Amino acid sequence: MFANLNGWHAVIVIAIILLLFGAPKIPQLARSLGQSMRILKTEIRDDGSGAPSDTPVAAPAEERAAK
């Protein structure tokens, strides 16, 4: 699929990304991508025993409705 791509294609793709998002937003996009990857890794490492201990558990619907 990517066999016909060369260096010029990468330059063109990077230029289009810079035009679409602008130079100031690129670090923000990279930071949010890194945070998303970190969250994904922790979720994958989770053994499935429920919510992690540092994540607050939402209150049941009855308690929220009573407030």
Q: How would you characterize the overall build of this protein?
A:
With 67 residues, the chain is an all-alpha fold. It is 63% helix and 0% strand. It is built from three helices and no strands. The radius of gyration is 21 Å and the shape is flat. 0% of the residues are buried. The mean pLDDT is 77.
Q: Biggest sheet, in brief? A: none
Radius of gyration: 21 Å
Globally, the shape reads: flat
In total, the number of strands is 0
Q: pLDDT under 50 segments (min length 5)? A: none
How much β-strand is present in the residues? Answer: under 5%
Q: Which percent bin holds the helix content?
A: 55-70%
Query: Could you spell the SSE succession in H and E letters?
Result: HHH
Mean of all residue-level pLDDT scores: 77
Class of secondary structure makeup: mainly alpha
The total of helices stands at 3
What distance lies between the first and last C-alpha atoms, to the nearest angstrom?
A: 56 Å
Concise account of the structure shown:
With about 70 residues, the chain is mostly helical. Helix content is about 65%, strand content about 0%.
Write the layout of secondary structure elements.
Blueprint: H1 7-21, H2 25-45, H3 61-66
List the keywords.
single chain, flat, 67 residues, mainly alpha, 63% helix
